[in-house]
Design goal:
- By secondary structure, the protein is an alpha/beta fold.
- The protein has a single domain (3-238), classed as TIM Barrel (Alpha-Beta Barrel).
- It has ten helices and eight strands.
- It has helices at residues 9-18, 25-34, 53-62, 75-84, 111-123, 136-144, 155-159, 163-182, 214-223, 225-237; strands spanning 3-7, 39-43, 66-71, 88-91, 127-132, 149-153, 186-190, 209-212.
- Strand 2, helix 3 and strand 3 (66-71) form a beta-alpha-beta unit.
- Bound molecules: 1-deoxy-D-xylulose-5-phosphate (DXP) and the ligand NCC(=O)COP(=O)(O)O.
- The ligand NCC(=O)COP(=O)(O)O is lined by residues 7, 41, 151, 190-193, 211-215.
- The site of ligand LD2JLWAY has 12 residues, from strand 8 and helix 9.
Length: 239
């Protein structure tokens, strides 16, 4: 059965909107665990628009499941990761002007830089995942530089406006997941997945972890974290 990794970034978004002390991402992380989350995800952005370094530290010291730290492969972030030592670092591309992560990491273009980051993290005992578009050449390169896993960027699929685009993007994800397994990479998926789109991954047993944030936190505003996480965990059980 696939696992659910809950991203609590947008609890911090709400806090930062007022420069206030609440809501606390660590509290959301604990509630998510109680409701069945298998891992907690935070994206520490260079511009610190939501999650702060203290959130990563607090969550790391408090949760009982796994911490997945999403970050750009910069020397500042590598220093933080080596200090906090999350279970996994997911390397993501980052642009200051984007609203959210727009594409997967271009491992082919930045091969040597990313390879060095993978070596540094793995030498410290941190697993490395690469957030990647469902592009077979990119995935082969992720394997070549010795990543442990890939997280297939599901944004284009989730945002597709027509059934033609949706089917095309779904096929890309299926092909990407299959090649990932063939290369013995862990295969995860995330970005833009909601309570409807998760159902479309039914039968795709190659994907062993779903990383979901915005939809869960949006629902939690209405229902509380417990119901929001339990409902998503149940949908993943039914895949
Ligand atoms: C890598 C990814 O798909 C998401 O985790 C995303 O980067 C989260 O960052 P935001 O919460 O800032 O959108
Ligand atoms: N890696 C994907 C993630 O952490 C959450 O993305 P989203 O559900 O907030 O789009």
């Amino acid at each position: 059965m696939a696992e659910l990794a809950v991203n609590v970034d947008h609890v911090a978004t709400l806090r930062q909107a007022r420069g206030a002390k609440h809501p606390e991402p660590v509290q959301a992380a604990l509630a998510a665990e109680t409701a069945g989350a298998d891992a907690i995800v935070v994206h520490l952005r260079e511009d610190r628009r939501h999650i702060q370094e203290r959130d990563v530290r607090l969550i790391s010291q408090t949760i009982k499941t796994r911490l997945i730290l999403e970050m750009a492969a910069t020397s500042e972030m590598l220093g933080i990761a080596l200090d906090i030592k999350p279970e996994t670092v997911t390397l993501v591309p980052e642009k200051r002007e984007e609203i959210t992560t727009e594409g997967g990491l271009d491992v082919i273009t930045h091969m040597e830089h990313i390879r060095q980051a993978v070596i540094t993290l793995k030498n410290a005992g941190i697993k490395v995942c690469i957030f990647i578009d469902p592009d077979l050449d990119q995935i082969k390169m992720a394997h070549k530089i010795d990543a442990d896993s890939i997280e297939i960027h599901t944004g284009a699929f989730c945002d597709a406006k027509t059934s033609y685009d949706r089917e095309r993007e779904y096929t890309r994800i299926v092909d990407a997941a299959k090649i990932g397994v063939k290369l013995k990479l862990g295969v995860h998926a995330g970005h833009g997945i909601c309570y409807q789109s998760i159902k479309e991954f039914k039968g795709l047993s190659e994907i062993t972890e779903y990383s979901i944030g915005h939809a869960i936190i949006s629902k939690a505003v209405m229902t509380g974290m417990d119901t929001a996480v339990r409902d998503m965990a149940q949908l993943i059980k039914e895949l």
